[in-house]
């Protein structure tokens, strides 16, 4: 069932449910709406839009934004921070695929 049609109780556990307005997301992160717009412009995250056209953020997006803020607070330019996070995600994906492949190959190896 898509998140937008899920019962309200199901949305509590859905990391991708767009529960936070831009203002609330900025408050939770201790940043500004301009920062959220900047990482959106850099295509690090793409907030959903409410029917009224307002940005809505999920918990998963807030975690990504928090990582970007951490890097920016350490002096990394925002564009570089977004690229670093993108590369970290690609590395995590590649490591996961590698682990899965080794696991599958190990299961099929009956000669040992």
From TrEMBL:
HTH merR-type domain: residues covered: 19-87
PROSITE patterns: HTH_MERR_2
Membrane-spanning parts: none
GO function terms (MF aspect): DNA binding
SUPFAM superfamilies (alphabetical): Putative DNA-binding domain (SSF46955)
Gene3D superfamilies assigned: 1.10.1660.10
InterPro entries found in the cross-reference section: DNA-bd_dom_put_sf, MerR-type_HTH_dom
Protein known as: MerR family transcriptional regulator
Any one biological process term the GO annotation gives: regulation of DNA-templated transcription
């Amino acid at each position: 069932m898509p998140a937008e049609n899920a019962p309200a109780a199901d949305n509590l556990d859905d990391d991708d449910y767009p529960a936070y307005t831009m203002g609330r997301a900025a408050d939770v992160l201790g940043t500004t709406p301009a920062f959220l717009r900047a990482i959106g412009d850099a295509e690090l995250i793409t907030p959903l839009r409410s029917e009224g056209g307002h940005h809505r953020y999920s918990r998963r997006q807030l975690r990504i934004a928090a990582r970007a803020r951490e890097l920016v607070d350490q002096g990394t330019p925002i564009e570089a921070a977004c690229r670093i996070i993108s590369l970290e995600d690609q590395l995590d994906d590649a490591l996961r695929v590698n682990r899965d492949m080794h696991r599958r190959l190990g299961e099929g190896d009956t000669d040992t």
